[in-house]
Design a protein that fits this description.
The complex is a heterodimer of chains A (about 250) and B (about 55).
Chain A lengths: L11 H33 L13 H28 L2 H33 L7 H22 L3 H15 L2 H11 L19 H33 L4 H9 L4
Helix pairs in contact in A: 1-7, 2-3, 2-5, 2-7, 3-4, 3-5, 3-7, 4-5, 4-6
Chain B lengths: L5 H6 L4 H32 L10
Chain lengths: ~250, ~55
């Protein structure tokens, strides 16, 4: 392992066993971090002076919202690599990320709605932040629907990639929407340019939960990409060998 | 420990429905996604032809 050749793992048959080895570690990390994050969020972080205990939705809302945007960028990145270099695994990766990204977007919207009702008095408002996040959900769903509607996987990859790349423009719109337009939604709690506008323990709870969702996303995407690899490469010799050796796990 | 009783904890200062509604749905979503993705993986593995059966499509 002195000189690790990363391109070695760019092929589905070499990535498949590597992913299999990584999944338990990311699962364990996700569970451990979620336990720590929830403990901080519910038992260490103080009551908010404005929002009381209702603000504790933040520990699931902000991490899912971050992941919804981050996963989209990663999905578009792999889709673009697949489009540019015609690498199979990159496109499979993009396809594997989409459902998890859509789920994170849904959870960000759902938890946001349950937070908005007691704090703003409305489940939903058509402001820039909420609307652009809803568009993100439609972009994920559109990506999946487009790929599902094309029988040839490589053509589906290319069509999906174009949609994913064009849709990236929406991510900075979501992120900066609270600065660019008037909104009920509060501004960023964490930013690089200034100190966080929240208690330290609240911040830690949020960051640990964000890491937990990150590890979860990696684990579940790796399981899905392994399924996609098997679906697409089922008639190859290496999958045959894999089944013959009984080493598919 | 900041909570004086379990009921106080579950009440979340009157926002219990909103707080637990958020976490419950997030938990359900994660459990369902894990179940679906594991099922997909097992099906994909089972559908891949074993060497002795040869190509079936």
């Amino acid at each position: 392992m002195a000189k690790l050749n990363w391109f070695y793992f760019a092929a589905p048959n070499t990535f498949y066993p590597l992913a299999g080895k990584m999944i338990p570690w990311f699962t364990a990390a996700a569970l451990g971090l979620a336990a720590i994050g929830l403990y901080i969020g519910f038992f260490v972080a103080p009551t908010d002076f404005q929002q009381g205990e209702g603000y504790r939705i933040i520990f699931v809302h902000v991490p899912t919202a971050w992941m919804s945007m981050f996963l989209y960028v990663v999905m578009a990145f792999w889709a673009a690599i697949g489009l540019a270099f015609n690498t199979r695994l990159s496109s499979m990766m993009a396809q594997a990320i989409a459902p998890t990204g859509a789920l994170m977007t849904f959870l960000a919207l759902w938890t946001g709605s349950l937070w908005g009702k007691p704090m703003w008095g409305a489940w939903w408002v058509w402001d820039a932040r909420l609307t652009s996040e809803l568009i993100l959900l439609f972009l994920y769903i559109g990506f999946m629907a487009l790929q599902a509607s094309i029988d040839d996987p490589r053509r589906a990859d290319r069509a999906g990639a174009v949609l994913a790349i064009v849709g990236v423009i929406n991510v900075p719109i979501i992120y900066f929407s609270v600065q660019w337009w008037n909104t009920l939604h509060q501004g960023a709690s964490v930013s690089i340019t200034r100190s966080p506008s929240m208690a330290t323990t609240m911040l830690w709870g949020m960051l640990v939960m964000a890491l937990a969702f990150w590890m979860y996303s990696i684990a579940v995407v790796l399981v899905r990409v392994r399924a996609i690899i098997l679906e697409r490469e089922r008639n190859t010799d290496w999958v045959r060998d894999l089944k013959a050796r009984g080493a598919a796990k | 420990m900041k909570w004086e009783s379990a009921s106080q904890f579950f009440a979340m200062g009157g926002h219990g429905l909103y707080v637990w509604g958020s976490y419950a749905v997030a938990l359900i979503a994660v459990v369902v996604e894990v179940a679906l993705v594991r099922t997909r993986f097992r099906r994909a593995l089972a559908a891949a032809p074993a060497p002795e059966t040869g190509r079936d499509d």
